[in-house]
Amino acid sequence: MSTQLQSPDQIKQSVKEKYASISNQSDGSSCCGPSGCCSPESTVDYTIFSDDYSKLEGYNPDADLNLGCGLPTEYAKMKPGDTVVDLGSGAGNDAFVARQVVGESGTVIGIDMTEAMIQRATLNAIKLGYNNVDFVLGDIEKMPLDDETADVVVSNCVLNLVPDKEKAFAETYRILKPGGHFSISDVVISGDLPGEIKEDAEMYAGCVAGAIDKEEYLQIIEIAGFTNITVQKLKEIQLPDEMLLNYLSKEGLKQFRNSKIGIYSITVYAEKG
Questions:
Q1: 193-237 pLDDT per residue, tens
Q2: What is the DSSP code string of 54-119?
Q3: In sequence order, which ranges of 59-114 are alpha helices (DSSP H)?
Q4: What is the pTM of this model?
Q5: Count of domains for the chain
Q6: Is 209 exposed, middle or buried (0-12, 13-18, 19+ CB in 10 A)?
Q7: Does residue 110 form part of some domain?
Q8: Tell me, what's the pLDDT at 13?
Q9: Domain containing 57 — which CATH number?
Q10: Cα distance between residue 143 and residue 159, in whole Å
Q11: What domain range is 248 assigned to?
């Protein structure tokens, strides 16, 4: 049974536990598949937002847990020799695609707050023989990186999991070099989610409850100091009835469907002035 969220620390702990569980699947593959998560207590399909990476150069199936909500590396305007930082790098999926672009002369740094994900990503990098891809344990609200480290920042369906999004984007600004940029895929909403969904830990870890209004999201990016903010891709997501009925009554579901609430996968580009 899912629990209710109370504090930022509780949110982070809940997210860490859920993603550690996904990473530690004994068969070495994702907990989740097209039909949903294998965990019997889970009420959320963690793959519901995911896009197909398999045709991108640098794709490695061992690193793909189907947990993203876009293809930020496809839009990130990376080039050979760049230093790329991947926020919430998971098992290394986006980092390895980025490494294919930046090449031997570039550097890729993945940051994740879940120890199990760092371990899994590091093992994947060793298997691939990459000596210029590093995975670092850290909190996106306070990154263990120097100022002006990155030419490019990417992130895939992670910022919605961060309680303090203002801090996360301020940190993103700090670690970017002047003239650097980011391409971030995330989940945003229009309208106001029902309280039963917004306050649920499972739905937060599933990238739904932590999503904020699209215009507020873009405003946070602007307040952080970024310019040339561009929505590169926007895709509406339909949550299945069977998932929503774990949180809403039948009448509540009907009201939700008749409302103007929208849930979207968004990919946003912005530059450090």
A1: 766 676 655 555 555 657 788 999 999 999 999 999 999 999 988
A2: TTSTT--GGG--S--SS-HHHHS---TT-EEEEET-TTSHHHHHHHHHH-TTSEEEEEES-HHHHH
A3: 72-75, 93-102
A4: 0.85
A5: 1
A6: buried
A7: yes
A8: 73
A9: 3.40.50.150
A10: 13
A11: 8-25+43-272
Burial of 127 (0-12, 13-18, 19+ CB in 10 A): exposed
Give the pair of three-digit tokens for residue 156. Answer: 């895939």
Q: Look at residues 232, 187, 225 and name the one whose alpha carbon lies nearest to residue 77.
A: 232
Cα dihedral 273, 271, 169, 97 sign: negative
Higher-pLDDT residue of 157 and 30 is 157
Q: What burial class does residue 225 get, using C-beta atoms within 10 Å of its C-beta: 0-12 exposed, 13-18 middle, 19+ buried?
A: middle
Give the type of residue at 47.
Answer: T
Tokens of 136: 């670092």
Lowest mean pLDDT among 35-39, 56-60, 68-72, 212-216: 35-39
Residue of higher predicted confidence among 209 and 57: 57
Give me the count of residues in the chain: 273
